[in-house]
Predict the structure of Multidrug resistance protein MdtD.
Amino acid sequence: MNKGVSSSETICNANNDKTLLLVLAMSVFFVGASEFMLSAMLDPLSTAFRTDPVRIAWLISSYAFAYAITAPLLGYLSDRINRGRLLRIALLSFAIDGFGIAFSPTLEIAIALRIFGGLASAVIIPTSFALISEVVPRARHASAMGAVMLGMTLGIALGPALAGLLTTWAGWRAPFLLTSTGCIVALLIGTIAMPKRPIAVAPRETHGLRWLRDVTVTRPLLAKGLWNGTGVSAFLLSGEVLRARYHLDVAHVGISVTAFGIGLGIGNLSAGKLRRVTGAEERSLVVVTGLLIASITTFYLLPLPLFGALGCLAAWGAALGAGAPSATTVLAERSGHDTGVVLATAETLNNVVILLIVPLASMTLARGLIATGTAVFATGLGIGAALTLYDAQVARARNPCKRNLPGS
């Protein structure tokens, strides 16, 4: 225990940290749920707005586009404004967005509000993880980020199901009202929890693009974008492979891919333990990328029975679930006062890789060229893994005495 810090103060800080993690997990849960729930609501939304599902899809595209384009700029802003205050503003904005869409008189107004929601989510996600790097003890970074990412995982996994049930029971407005109410609850709890924590603000003389010249930041940033974006791309196309290979209908494909979600949650919860076993996040990421390459190539190339394919999906999800918190921890630690903009750029880079790989891989898979499609995935994963391995070696050379010790 640090000198001058009483046991009661330590307990208070620990309780504040737990409350903060709850707020952050709730925040990213409702962002994840809001982003993915529309996949189950296209038909009722098209009926409500008296249009076709193609136009309704703009509610998805406008949100994703606003998020990807503005995330780095808003991340830069978060480095220069008190993060706790900015997060509360973003939660309020996201709540207003949901209520507004629920009562929008036209689709055009709903799309405009969805863009507004994309801006709010571009603040909530990177700011949540930047807050962890500032207020949670260093030894607990990976486990804390994994716990908060589990909130997002649950939101992504449960969002469509909750939306479908609520729409059936109470109408299409109910899912939007639920996410808005959840953000208000997170805002109220956060108002109590966050002001008690010292939140750093970048000094005025800090140059927002200086981190781009720091290879210790850009190397893991590019590596994460490649292996994470490629891993998600491969998953987005895995359902069609399951359907064609095992002759499954849509419902059974949906049930089958839950193996990935289960693995993702297990990975989120295991990030801290993996860090303790390997001794550092950089070495954890070497294990993660190796598992990711093995599970994806095995899934696509080998004629596995269905349970074998599901096992690959679970391992694949676990690798991404454990890797994301570890990579985020590395980026947050190395980026200093530019944590917000770096983490936001990481989100944008993931989306860019997905936008590049999915069309190319889907064209080859649609033609039955499984090996060629797998080669597309292997290229992205291989480059990302090579950069990760090199980064781990450099980090080890710089810290030769670092061991698996508490607080190391």
